[in-house]
Specification:
By secondary structure, this protein is α/β, with parallel strands linked by helices. It is 37% helix and 13% strand. The chain is globular.
Length: 482
């Protein structure tokens, strides 16, 4: 071969080797947990750089189908290389927890970097945030790699009641990876889909009323909706200060506990809520509550007959969940079958009348405050956003919203058990936590979850219950290849 031909051939071979490098390791990245990834790091079977490059390839391959990622962080590989070097130099806190682990951030959570924070809207494209969101700052402190921004329902499903779940102007319609025609549900759709389809290790979502619990159920992942204030909302494009919360969306309860440990705690930029909720954080962290036999002795309230919340008398639903009730009992849980919810009629009224009016008013105030803090932005108020979208809506005046009307269950119960995402509205009104765990797949292959909810600060108990159920069933499976 002529010498002039050797250079291009050599370069081509080198390029192919580089492209295949992420698949040449003995370690299988698909479905790998944080513990497995950290073990591979320590055994020199994997680097954070390789892991990030793998996920970037996955996004390039799958995102045209699933529309789950809005942007990839151009600095992600650099952050991974830094993590690898820190681990090599044995920097304190390196090689544990989220250090070197790629995380996708929902696009309504601010990152002070080269990426946009837009809530899926062109209206906020090229706006400049003042700082990282509080939870992002904590992720960076843990050594996590910010892989990119996850797609979402535009304005957290608050632009229009008619828009389908998972649609936004920037990324278009997100698609459920299990069954393309199935509603991906809620607004944290990209966060759920990307984790389910192995486009990232773990992700962050946000919830006002169902936007973590619902997509977690519909996309067969674990989602934790924390007590309001347990995680900072500073730097999160808001809807309601009463109900907004940020939480983990992962493939296992263990991974979700790792993420929760990293992002909880006081933040001066969300001082009132985070100071109040900090008393609920266990000193030993949440990983300590991943206990074998976590279901033993737990009192679980089963909602059967309440409309829109219970398991009801529907044969299909009962067939899905009766076997799980048996599993809970076989693993030591005590089921409270005739659970009564105080003020249930008032809760229904609030959910279908007062809640929407209250959220509309709170959204205007909270969004205007967020937009005013931006360093630069094409829009500075809700009115600007409405004008941008060429639509207008009058916001109704409301009376003071009653704060203490709600009680989900008697305090003698450790957790409330509901099917799918049906308990999310109840939990939202009280600012209470919930965990969705994969519970199976129906005859069409549609995933569904089971939700464990509790009173404020009950995350340690809920993690024990959710982990116990997960380990007893191990139902989650990855989606089929597109």
């Amino acid at each position: 071969m002529h010498k002039k031909m050797l250079a291009p051939v050599f370069l081509m071979i080198l390029l192919l080797q580089t492209m295949n490098a992420v698949e040449s390791s003995d370690f299988v990245i698909q479905e790998a947990t944080i513990d497995e990834i950290q073990a591979a790091f320590k055994q020199n079977k994997l680097t954070s750089k390789t892991l990030v490059q793998f996920y970037i390839q996955q996004i390039r391959k799958l995102n045209p189908v699933y529309k789950a990622v809005i942007e990839v962080n151009p600095d992600a590989v650099h952050q991974a290389v830094k993590a690898d070097q820190e681990r090599k130099n044995k920097v304190p806190k390196s090689g544990v927890g989220l250090h070197g682990i790629p995380v996708l951030i929902k696009d309504n959570i601010a990152t002070k970097d080269k990426m946009n924070t837009t809530a899926g809207s062109y209206a906020l494209l090229k706006s400049v945030v003042a700082r990282d969101a509080g939870v992002v700052e904590k992720l960076r402190d843990s050594g996590a790699v910010i892989l990119g921004k996850a797609s979402m329902s535009e304005w957290a499903h608050y632009r229009s009641t008619n828009a389908p779940s998972g649609w936004n102007a920037r990324a278009k319609q997100a698609v459920n990876p299990y069954v393309a025609t199935l509603d991906p549900c809620g607004s944290s759709t990209g966060s759920a889909i990307s984790v389910a389809a192995n486009m990232v290790s773990v992700s962050l979502g946000t919830e006002t009323a169902g936007s973590i619990i619902c997509p977690s159920s519909a996309n067969s992942i674990v989602g934790i909706k924390p007590t309001v204030g347990l995680t900072s909302r500073a730097g999160v494009i808001p809807i309601s200060q009463r109900q907004d919360t940020v939480g983990p969306m992962c493939r296992t309860v263990t991974d979700a506990a790792y993420v929760l440990d990293a992002i909880v705690g006081y933040d001066k930029n969300d001082a009132v809520a985070t100071r109040k909720a900090s008393k609920y954080i266990p000193k030993s962290g949440y990983l300590k509550h991943l206990k074998p036999g976590g279901l033993k002795g737990k009192r679980l309230g089963i909602m059967r007959d309440y409309p829109l919340f219970g398991f009801g008398n529907d044969t299909e639903t009962l067939n899905k969940f009766e076997k799980h009730f048996d599993t809970l009992k076989q693993n030591g849980a005590i089921l409270i079958e005739n659970l009564e919810i105080k003020n249930f009629i008032h809760i229904l009224i609030l959910m279908f009348n007062g809640k929407d009016i209250a959220l509309a008013a709170e959204f205007k105030v909270a969004l205007n405050d967020y937009l005013k803090e931006l360093v630069t932005s094409p829009v500075r108020s809700l009115a600007d956003v409405i004008a941008f979208n060429n639509k207008y809506a009058d916001l109704e005046k409301i009376k003071e919203y009653p704060q203490d009307l709600f009680l989900a269950a008697e305090k003698t119960n450790d957790a409330l058990v509901t099917p799918y995402e049906q308990g999310s509205g109840v939990l939202a009104i009280g600012g209470y936590p919930g965990i969705s765990v994969p519970a199976g797949y129906d005859k069409n292959g549609d995933p569904y979850g089971i939700c464990f909810g509790g009173l404020k600060g009950s995350e340690p108990t809920l993690i024990e219950v959710a982990y116990g159920f997960e380990q007893a069933t191990k139902l989650r499976k990855p989606p089929p290849m597109p």
